[in-house]
Amino acid sequence: MSNNEADHTVKNMPVPYEKVKSVMDEETYKWHHDTHYAGYVNKRNEIEKELTSVDRSKANVNYSLFRSLKLEETWNGNGTVLHEIYWDTMGGDGRHEERMELIKQIIKDFGSFDKWKEDFIATGKAGRGWVVLSIDVLTDGKLRNFLFDVHNTGGLVGSIPLIAADTFEHAYYHKFGPDRAAYLNALVENIDWQKADGKFKQYI
Q: 71 is in which domain, residue-wise?
C-alpha cells in the first residue's frame, strides 16, 4: 500500500452459517458481516485516506479534525480486526483435548478449562463490547481474558488475541434477547479448538 492509499478489504465469512447457527440467527449472520463489519473496513479506508492530507498544524486535544481521525482510526481498525478474530475460531463443536498446546496453557494459567470458561463468560458479561482471550507476549507469556469496553478501550499493549467474543447487543439480541450468558455459553461450545490451537502455536 502506498502512502496515499488505503486498501483494507472486506474478508469473506470464514465459516458457513450452518456451523454457527447455535450462536446467531441467519439475519444476524448476514447483517453482522455485510453491514456492520464491512462498515468498519470501509471507514478505516476512508480515515486512512483523509489522514494523508489532514492539516496537522491544527492538532488540538480539545478538538481538531486530526484528533478525531486518530481516535476513529483505532475504533474502526480494531472493529475490523476483532470481528475477523471473532468469526475465525467459530464453527467447531467445542471439543478440546488436553494434549493441545493451547489447552495445556489454559490449564496452567487458569487452573482448569472450566475455570477459564467461567472467567471468559464473566468477563464477557462484565464488558460492554468484547471479551478476548489473548497471550501476553511482552511481559510474562500468560493467557488472559481481556475486557474491551469498546473496540479501542481495553486489552493490553503487545498481547496477541486468539479468541474473541463480540458482546455488543447487536451480536446476540436477535437470537438470545438479553440473556448474554446463554449466548456466551453457546459461543464457547462452538469454538473450533483446532484453529485456536494453531494460532497459539505461532507464538510459543
A: 24-88
